[in-house]
Amino acid sequence: MPQISDAPSPGTSPDTLASIVCPDRLETVFGTLDFFDGLPLPEAVTRSYDTLDLLRGIEAFLNCVPGASMVALRRGLRSIGVDSRTIGFTAPRCTSAPVLLTGNTETAYGMTFLALDEDGPTVVEAPGNSLCVVDDLWQRYVTDMGIAGPDQGNGGAYLFLPPPRVRG
Asked: Whole-structure pTM over 0.85, yes or no?
């Protein structure tokens, strides 16, 4: 039966061994982490969990920015009378007056928020020679209409269906 030794093998250099050893102290942007025999000391454990909490909080905030901005935009449109059956638009182009995250003054914008759960199946007619993008509330792409869509800029009617109801 072979014997196992914890002595370094002849092929392992001292530099290699030094490169894989956990240091007793590690300086990070979140503070110093102290270790003993490769294990974090209690303060290092606490600091590590606090750091994870902070990073996860930042990630949750950033992941919610698209939805929060869409909720604010929907509230703004509702406040001027644009409901789920109306399309609000800038004519002829957008100015600097509306507060849009990425609006520019070279583009005419039309926007609405469908309420498929309330209104049921909804038909949207894309005008000819338009470029229309449909996103969900989290700004995830759904489809194109108009020039980039199946109607190729000739105008077309698009049917949007609510999600199926779950029966329990």
From this structure: no
The CA-CA-CA angle for residues 112, 115, 119, to 5°, reads: 120
Is-contact 89 122, C-beta < 8 A? Answer: no
Handedness of CA 122, 127, 129, 134 (dihedral sign): negative
Residue 47 zone, left/alpha/beta (φ > 0; ψ -120 to 50; rest): alpha
User: Residue 93's closest CA among 109, 77, 73, 76?
Assistant: 109
CA gap 11, 88 in Å, rounded = 73
Residue type at position 148:
A
pLDDT for residue 121 is more than 90 = yes
Contact 94, 100 (CB under 8 A): yes
Of the candidates 112, 159, 152, the residue with the CA atom closest to the CA atom of residue 135: 112
Say whether pLDDT at 8 is over 60.
no
DSSP 3-state assignment of 47? helix
**Encoding tokens for residue 50?**
């606090």
